[in-house]
Amino acid sequence: SSGINAEWPLRPGFFERIARNVDVKSAGKFFDRLLAGVCEETSTGICLNSIFNVLEELVEMGVNTVEDFDDYDDGDRKYQKEQEKRCDAMFGSYRAWEKDGRDLSDFTGETEEFWKVALNMTAKATNAFYCEKKCKKDRGALYPCCLRRMLEDEKLFDNVQRVIESVYKIIPAMVYRFGWDGFYELDYRFESDWSAQELEERASWTVPANLRDALMRTLHAAKYCEGKIVRCSK
């Protein structure tokens, strides 16, 4: 469809349409649960502090990976495998991403397929990071128990899903050509951009279960490791 590429200047009633149709109630519930999670008391003060500590360690690992990447790239496969098992770098995740072999640029015109491929690739990368047998014990420091509880909060992600679905459905009404020519008659230019079938499909669209599963496998990779579990840190 060419609708998504139609003119996009603001038209009278633009913000009113968003306010009436986007699921702000679910958005509010999401932020309430999110704030409750990040403000939970922990050994570091609150959960947000623990999350920032994790991010600091991830940045250090990212720096280690960048600094040693030329040696990794120039090394033979035996050397690369040794680097991929390091617990202080992200070569294992890099390898998992590259091994998938798909190019995301091939899916830019297919929104749902793009996210399906992208999330499956990120899920493989985070799985390699958290589930490397040699590093599982160390990964607990990057898996705060308060964060685990947030990631296991189904209602939090239910609210995210409802907001995404409401935004997806309102996209056609956000283009400039959406308007009325007469009594219950849509602007003919809008109807040329969006067919009745497309509008009907959008109205009934829900986030596919496999997309949500891939998202959770990306965000909560430690939960999906085979063998010994990754124990969260208090």
List keywords for this structure.
234 residues; mainly alpha; two-stranded antiparallel ribbon; 13 helices; 4% strand; globular; disordered N terminus
Topology:
Blueprint: H1 14-21, H2 24-38, E1 41-42, E2 45-46, H3 47-67, H4 69-74, H5 77-84, H6 91-100, H7 111-131, H8 136-139, H9 145-151, H10 154-174, E3 180-182, E4 185-186, H11 188-193, H12 196-203, H13 209-219
Antiparallel strand pairs: 1-2, 3-4
Please, could you describe this protein's structure?
The chain has 234 residues and is mainly α. It is 62% helix and 4% strand. It is built from 13 helices and 4 strands. The chain has helices at 14-21, 24-38, 47-67, 69-74, 77-84, 91-100, 111-131, 136-139, 145-151, 154-174, 188-193, 196-203, 209-219, and strands spanning 41-42, 45-46, 180-182, 185-186. Strands 1-2 form a two-stranded antiparallel ribbon. A two-stranded antiparallel sheet has the order 3-4. A hairpin with a 2-residue loop joins strand 1 (41-42) and strand 2. 17% of the residues are buried.
Broad shape: globular
Question: Which ranges are low-confidence, i.e. pLDDT below 50, for 5 or more consecutive residues?
Answer: 1-10, 176-184
**How much strand content do the residues show?**
under 5%
Average per-residue pLDDT, rounded, comes to 86
Task: Describe, in short, the structure shown.
It is built from 13 helices and 4 strands.
